[in-house]
Amino acid sequence: MSIKDxxxxxxxxxxxxxxxLNRPEAVSADRRRRVLQVIDDLGYVRNDVxxxxxxxxxxxxxxxxxxxxxxxxxxxxxxxETAAExxxxxxxxGNAGQSPDRENLYxxxxxxxxxxxxxVTPQTPERSRIETLRxxxxxxxxxxxxxxxxxxxxxxxxxxxxxxxxxEHLLAGGARRIAFxxxxxTLHQVVDRHAGAEQAVAQVPGAxxxxxxxxxxxxxxxxxxxxxxxxxxxxRRPEAVFAANDLLGLGLLQAFVFTHRLRVPxxxxxxxxxxxxxxxxxxxxxxxxxxxxxxxxxTAVELLEDEVADPEHRHRHVSFPPELVxxxxxxxxx
Length: 334
Prior knowledge:
Elements: H1 3-10, H2 14-22, H3 29-42, H4 48-55, E1 60-65, H5 71-86, E2 90-95, H6 100-112, E3 117-120, H7 128-135, E4 140-143, E5 153-157, H8 159-172, E6 177-182, H9 188-202, E7 208-213, H10 219-230, E8 240-243, H11 246-258, E9 269-274, H12 277-281, E10 287-290, H13 293-309, E11 317-320, E12 323-325
Parallel strand pairs: 1-2, 1-3, 3-4, 4-5, 5-11, 6-7, 6-8, 8-9, 9-10
Antiparallel strand pairs: 10-12
Helix pairs in contact: 1-2, 1-3, 5-13, 8-9, 10-11
């Protein structure tokens, strides 16, 4: 079914049908009703991709998130959707699932769909596919990523500062043997949070930081790390744990509490990162470093609109401060 079929059945020109769809105020009420009735009778659905190509501007934004199983990225998506809706746009979300190949698959798809622009939380430092998008006229904003403003618009929380804040809080509660649980080390968020933790420990004589790598930032990996800690003699266990994100933290909490082997925070203090909703409702409410996830999503759309309006403008990087949220899983400073 095409616009020509609608025009023929309604007894009007193709231009009139186009106006009814795109500029209804330019068509008389009687003619507009007739065309809309024919559209309804025929079940016509306009080819939005073709229309966008002709207009030279899409109303669709592509968003590729690192892992939609992590509520943090879902919150970013909700923020982006809110901002896009106010601009009369829609957001299509692709889950890379921590796979660079899946990330590239979605970037290919968004290019084929001629989206207005792409928001992406990159899996690796590799930028060739993103550069190709930009060279073909599709603006890109890097989300949860620190990029030189001379090359890209980007936004992220200061994860080094966040890692430092988390471990300073554990140290203030009296812990000296601290473990950092997180991985893989290819994720810059993990690297930065660990670097901040090292900075905090270096300021306190007698304090130590043990790195406990994981294959992913998931609840299951947190449970595995927690089980490994429980298998050690008590003297070799850490006094406090900084989990690289809340999903790991919740897994660690399950390992400690559900086995009734360790009390949190009396036997071991625990803090996570992201401050997802589940942190509040855990069996022991989880202390965390908060990231303003919805604000990050909204800001990403704003940066993208800057790119669309003026591709040659100076790129901006927006850095958000982390916030310490103290709950029952950590000792209060003495």
